[in-house]
Amino acid sequence: MLKATNLTKKYGNFTALNALNLSVEGGDIFCLLGANGAGKSTTINLFLNFIEPTTGEAAINSLNVTQYPGETKQVLAYIPENLMLYSNLTGLENLDFFCGLGGKHYSREQLEGLLEQSGLQKAFIHRRVSSYSKGMRQKVGIALARAREASVLLLDEPTSGLDPKASNEFSELLLEMKGKGVATLMATHDLFRAKDTGTHIGIMKEGVLVEQFKSGDVSFQDLEKLYLRHMHN
Ligand SMILES: Nc1ncnc2c1ncn2[C@@H]1O[C@H](COP(=O)(O)OP(=O)(O)OP(=O)(O)O)[C@@H](O)[C@H]1O
């Protein structure tokens, strides 16, 4: 579970994130929408403890991420827009390497299984990542999240640049993780995916969460109108 309480990040006089309050429970997919510079990545980076809040708190499973960096990192998986993988290694070798960094060790068969369950075609498992499409790389990210048995997923524009089929496959994987009780916070520009895949949607503007609601409570047309209204005002 993720919880932000009056979470604020300032750079000098500039407020990148202003008193954010949000909760993401297990089984929720909370999609953060907003224009460039709205504060979405800042929010994700605060939960990752990549940056420290000026005031307020980011907590994972009720632990403050600044005070408990090890414990909170242990339960989360992070997939950015461009996942850092070693191009000269195969998907399986990358998965093995990153699992090892997290203290998890799996047999070759288990690693193959994790990649297959994450939708990577069998033929690519033992090919170098340099030959992978962006969608395939993101599937390795999902496999890593599975391998880490992460209960929290932090995603920063993970489907940006994916074609609709790959994006759809990624959404299916998120829904599967949701079914396992994973709490997901995703920054995205994709209104359609947010409505389609998200359980909750937040709209950010200039560091402020100006709206938050359940995705089932609005139609796609209303979401689009609401979003555009906030962007134009
Ligand atoms: N290290 C920094 N120093 C100063 N300002 C920063 C720093 N990092 C981010 N900002 C500013 O904070 C604001 C929020 O940035 P953030 O990256 O969170 O936006 P975003 O909503 O993720 O945007 P995008 O959709 O472009 O990824 C921006 O105005 C950005 O310029």
From TrEMBL:
It comes from the Bacteria. Gene3D superfamilies: P-loop containing nucleotide triphosphate hydrolases (3.40.50.300). Keywords: ATP-binding, Nucleotide-binding, Transport. GO terms for molecular function: ATP binding. Residues 2-231 form the ABC transporter domain. PANTHER family: ABC TRANSPORTER ATP-BINDING PROTEIN ALBC-RELATED (PTHR42939:SF1). This is ABC transporter ATP-binding protein. It comes from Fulvivirga kasyanovii.
